[in-house]
Amino acid sequence: MNLKCGIVGLPNVGKSTLFNALSNAGAESANFPFCTIDPNVGLVTVPDDRLDKLSELIQPKQTLPATIEFVDIAGLVKGASEGKGKGNAFLSHIREVDLIVHVVRCFEDDDIIHVEGSVDPERDIHIIEDELILKDLESVEKRVENLKKQSKSGDKKIVAELDIVQRLANHLEEGNSARTFDADEEDRKAFRDLSLLSDKPVLYACNVSEDEINTGNDYVETVRSIASKFDDEVVTFCAKIEAEIAELDETEKEMFLEELGVDSAGLDRLIQAAFKNLGLITYFTAGEKEVRAWTIKKGTKAPQAAGVIHTDFEKGFIRAETIAYDDYVSLGSEKAAKEAGKMRQEGKEYVVQDGDVMLFRFNV
Questions:
Q1: Are 159 and 225 contacting, i.e. CB atoms less than 8 angstroms apart?
Q2: 283 belongs to a structural domain
Q3: Residue 301 DSSP symbol
């Protein structure tokens, strides 16, 4: 289960620098191995100290972390929804993402020109949001026209769908995002397949100056205020610092962060916030051949968690042999955990917990 995040933002807000920091972290010793899928997409490993600890204990032949995919939605400006800049091309990419990472400039620098002439996070956020809404309106209006033609048959289901989608079109036309549209889960089925841009969860990434990485500033507080309306996450980072970190090995990185008085790199915090935003957790499989992290939605039951590995695991699920991460680490091995009575036999109704170390039994 790869988490896909679309990075959006106005020009010169630090978005490209952030993406390039990811792409430069391709050295084997770096914390974020990166491979290019196409010029605007990168795959990055998810940092997890628990995976490192399990690997240290077991010494497997290979360790496979969870991954997160970043899509660089470049060139968004006013009029992007009408094709200005590279708007249409990049807006189409964002339909496939699970989460929008909205990079907002929260620093002053006379040497870096702001496309709107001044630093104003609230204005900048609304510019991007408006473009997403306008693009959504285009999609919804096409759906309305199609449903109008189909509704002539008198099909009650089609008529009901038309009513919902028409109300959504009116809602968007008034400048509101799809996230604020008043509709239950059943009604949302009428337009879910459109993958509306303004219906996606958002993580705000505030790009601050080097001397404000620990303190933040008034611009960041403005973003927090906007984000609070949807309980969206906000992460502060310094694009310049992230670019420098990407060039360092793990030891140098730790020393550099310590000098800055920062506990973790901005990219680490961004990924962790993305997981939290989308309600994702991690479970592990651990053996001599491989220690691996798997990403699932919080609340997933054992058979469905097994299905993330292979559909046959879910179809033939018998039970899950489960050890809590803390028990595994404190006792030092699967064998010791089993002898101490810490390995549990869990059935089909078991809800997987974050950090569970699992072995699935299934019929072929």
A1: no
A2: no
A3: B
Q: Tokens for 53?
A: 């600890």
pLDDT digits (tens, 9 = 90+) for 188-210: 999 999 999 999 999 999 999 98
Question: Would 261 be classed as within a structural domain?
Answer: yes
Identify whether 330 is part of a domain: yes
Contact 86, 35 (CB under 8 A): no
| Both structure tokens of 203 | 């993580």
Residue (of 31, 10, 62) closest to 250 by Cα position = 31
Per-residue pLDDT tens over the stretch 105-154: 999 888 877 777 889 999 999 999 998 999 899 999 999 999 999 999 88
Q: 132 and 49 in one domain?
A: no
Asked if 185 and 219 sit in the same domain, the reply is: no
**What's the distance, Cα to Cα, between the start and end of the chain in Å?**
23
Verify that 77 and 187 share a domain, yes or no. no
In b/e form, how buried is each residue of 155-174, taking b as 16+ CB within 10 angstroms? eeebeebbebbbebbebbee
Q: Given this model, what pLDDT does residue 29 score?
A: 26
pLDDT mean over 76-90? 52
Same domain for 263 and 156, yes or no, is no
Domain that holds residue 331: 299-362
- Sequence-distant (6+) residues with CB within 8 A of 332 are 57
> How far apart are alpha carbons 175 and 177 in whole angstroms?
7
Residue 82: closest CA among 131, 141, 133? 131
- pTM of the full structure: 0.82
Q: What are the contacts of 109-116 at 24+ separation with CB within 8 A?
A: 109/209, 112/12, 113/12, 114/10, 114/12, 115/10, 115/11, 115/12, 115/77, 116/10
Point out the least confidently predicted range of 269-278, 298-307, 343-352: 269-278
Instruction: Kindly report, residue by residue over 251-287, the tens digit of the pLDDT.
Output: 888 888 888 877 777 878 888 888 888 889 999 999 9
Q: Is residue 289 part of a domain?
A: no
* Final residue in a domain of this structure, among 162, 182, 198: 198
